[in-house]
Amino acid sequence: MAHSAPVISSNTGVAAKLGKAIGAALLDTVEAYGEISFTVERSKLATVLEKLRDKHEYQQLMEIAGVDYPDRPERFEVCYHLLSLTKNHRIRVKVSTDEDNAVPSVTHIWEVAGWLEREVFDMYGVLFDGNTDLRRILTDYGFQGHPFRKDFPLTGYVEMRYSEEAKRVVYEPVKLAQDFRSFDFMSPWEGADYILPGDEKVGGETPPPTPKTTDDKKDTGAGDKANEEAAKPSKRKEAAAKKPAPKRTKSGTQKKGEGK
């Protein structure tokens, strides 16, 4: 039986109402795929989130996520996902920043933001002004770089292993057994747009094979001679025909030693 309460409340009128409440701090509003996102000024972030919590009942901060757009002047987006328990509704608030400009911390609004901001700092290198414990939280001590940045190498910079000689975990530069390979997932029936290995020997395109033709009987081996050979019994059948049948008693069973 379906529950009477909806999975999520309707978005009708929400974007206009909250956009008006945010006021001059609002830079952009996007409503797509059943979700509402507000982009606000970085310096007004804490004020906007506090207003959404206290006056519009978005009580919970569910997540802080980072996104990296290397081609933008302010390459990072920091996304705050809010949930209203009383309205059964979610919204997203976003700000943009770069490597040098810090985002205002919201730990004074939600204590859980302390760990969430540390995750974004660890993965992207985004700074948060007002977070008194901005340390790495997911990577190891002494880790180099920020793994979720688009320019971070897939292999990283170092690898670790346990050393029997040193009796501890040691870090060493990454050594790959083989280089990364590029895989082509194109359908084999469509064919590749480039020359496959070996095709360059025949000028780029492999000619189709010449089909075998059998216009004459001599090309197939058929004929009267072949028919006569096929009609002859095999040697196995001839041997079986020459072998005498076993003698049988009245009971129909062969006595021991007979039939040899």
UniProtKB/TrEMBL annotation:
Print the keywords alphabetically.
Answer: Cell membrane, Membrane, NAD, Oxidoreductase, Quinone, Translocase, Transport, Ubiquinone
Compositionally skewed regions (Basic and acidic residues) per UniProt: 213-241
Report the GO molecular function annotations.
Answer: oxidoreductase activity
Q: Which domain of life is it from?
A: Bacteria
Please report the stretch or stretches of sequence annotated as the NADH:ubiquinone oxidoreductase 30kDa subunit domain: 39-157
Q: What is this protein for, i.e. what is its function?
A: NDH-1 shuttles electrons from NADH, via FMN and iron-sulfur (Fe-S) centers, to quinones in the respiratory chain. The immediate electron acceptor for the enzyme in this species is believed to be ubiquinone. Couples the redox reaction to proton translocation (for every two electrons transferred, four hydrogen ions are translocated across the cytoplasmic membrane), and thus conserves the redox energy in a proton gradient.
| Subunit | NDH-1 is composed of 14 different subunits. Subunits NuoB, C, D, E, F, and G constitute the peripheral sector of the complex.
| UniProt protein name | NADH-quinone oxidoreductase subunit C
User: Native species of this protein?
Assistant: Parasphingorhabdus flavimaris
